[in-house]
Fold GNAT family N-acetyltransferase.
Amino acid sequence: MHAERILEHYDIRPPRLSDAAALAAAYRHNRDHLAPYEPRRTDIFYTAAGQRESLGISLEAAQHGRAAGWLILAGESVVGRINLNTIVRGAAHSAHVGYWVDREHTGRGLATAAVEYACDAAVDLGLHRIEAGTLTDNLASQAVLRKCGFEQIGHARSYLFIDGAWGDHDIFQRILNDKPPG
C-alpha cells in the first residue's frame, strides 16, 4: 500500500486503520467546510475511535470487492478522500464515486486528479461505468466531474439526506469502456 504522486506535493494511497487519528483531525479541520455536502455526523465521527470504526467498515467492504478508497495526502497530513462505493458486478459493473478536499487545498486541481485516479482504478477493477451525484448547487463538484469526462444524465429529487434535509441532486456518469464484463 504505497503512495502514488497525483500532483506536485500530493500523494494518494489506500487507507489503513493506523490513519484513524490523522483522518479524524482532517474531518475536524474541515467540519464546517464539509457540513453542507454530507450527512450530519455525531461527535464520535470526529474522533480517532470513530474513524477507526469507519475505516474498519470501509476496509472490510474493499476486501470483499464492494468498495475501494484512497486518502489524499500532503506529506503526512490527510487533505482529502475519494471512494468508489457500491461496486456492483453482474450486468452493471459500476460504482458511485464520492470525494472531498480540505478547504485549504481546493482550487489546485486536486479533486480532478483524484477523480481521474479513481476512474483509472475502476478500469483496473474491470468496471464499465462510474456514477456521481451532487447537490444541485454544488457547482465546484459538478465542474470537477465535467473536467473528468462525466456527463449529466439526470436530476434526482430528494435523492440523499444531506446536512439534515433531503436534497435534490444532479446525477452524472462516465462510461469507462465498452468491454464485456470479464
Q: What stands out?
A: The beta strands are 4-7, 10-13, 68-74, 77-88, 94-101, 129-135, 151-162, 165-175. The chain is about 30% helix and 35% strand.
